[in-house]
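Entry 12.
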Amino acid sequence: MLARNLLLIIVLSLMASCASSPYIQTDSDRNYDLSSYKSFKVESPNVETTPELISINPILIQRIGRAVEYSLEEKGLISSDKPDLVVRFYLGTKREVDRSSDFGGYGYYGRYYDSRDQRYIRSDKDEISLRFHDGKSDEVVWYAFTRYNRSKNQSDQEAINKLIKEAVSNFN
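Predicted 3D structure (tokens):
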């Protein structure tokens, strides 16, 4: 019984360690002191003036805006109309076509038998880019980029909050 429980704990620990968190790429401009920023303003993308965002759910944009505000307030920054930091975020979808072969059956093609069956699978990779701009110069002082699974997380504010919080955790 003890060995079985021990084995169960080991297996669960291995499974938990394999749980993947999203890869988040960040960068900052060393000419700016990120700790000097005390206030911020979030500027969401405008779906009406940007035709390429037509397929983006406007409620998802609102959720991301809320998540950015929440994460920055949690870090001690204050929302302001005259901010030190202007935060802009961008959403995109990268579409890829993956090709796979199936060697399961045989068919007669001319003088030889061939078992190749080509399949094409479209996969969408959704992306978020966060850009923190200096309030005076409008230069980008900090940047984060990540991919996320829209089909599972777009209607879940908590999942968006978690993703953005993890991205913003590397700021100052």
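Annotation: The chain has four helices and eight strands. Residues 2-18 form the longest helix (17 residues).
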